[in-house]
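Incident log, support desk, overnight shift.

02:14 A customer reports that sequence design results differ from what the structure should imply. Their input is reproduced verbatim below. On-call engineer (initials T.W.) acknowledged and began investigating.
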């Protein structure tokens, strides 16, 4: 009987560890069910804890500040001062918000756990899409 006692203790400890681990995974998945995992940023914009729509709005507001900034253009003797938006610059807020939402939600179970761990303990930074330029709008704005 005494030889079985250490084995039973080991099996019991493993069972408790398994239950605690599963409980933590279930809690985290329920706590952030519709929200981006804390510790996720799009460039320097903190989006952790937001829904995907809230993140899109926050990213879009920052992008609008960038697009509304004036650019001074000098050609020959003529000077023009136009915003980046008037020159045909544009940015997408949807794609980076979707990528931020997918942290901890895509890939194998191990990959998802690692992504959540990185977000909580380091930070996960999603790069923002490059600025796209409508060359026709640039041409018409400069004429």
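02:41 Re-run completed on a clean worker. Output:
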């Amino acid at each position: 009987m005494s030889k079985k006692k250490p084995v039973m203790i080991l099996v019991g400890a493993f069972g408790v560890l398994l239950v605690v681990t599963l409980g933590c995974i279930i809690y985290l998945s329920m706590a952030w069910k519709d929200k981006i995992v804390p510790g996720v940023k799009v460039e320097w914009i903190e989006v952790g804890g937001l829904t995907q729509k809230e993140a899109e709005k926050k990213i879009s507001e920052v992008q609008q500040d960038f697009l509304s900034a004036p650019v001074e253009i000098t050609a020959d003797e003529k000077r023009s001062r136009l915003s980046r938006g008037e020159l045909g610059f544009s940015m997408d807020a949807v794609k980076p918000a979707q990528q931020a939402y997918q942290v901890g939600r895509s890939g194998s179970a191990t990959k998802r756990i690692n992504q959540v761990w990185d977000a909580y303990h380091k930070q996960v930074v999603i790069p923002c899409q490059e600025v796209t330029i409508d060359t026709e709008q640039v041409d018409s704005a400069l004429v």
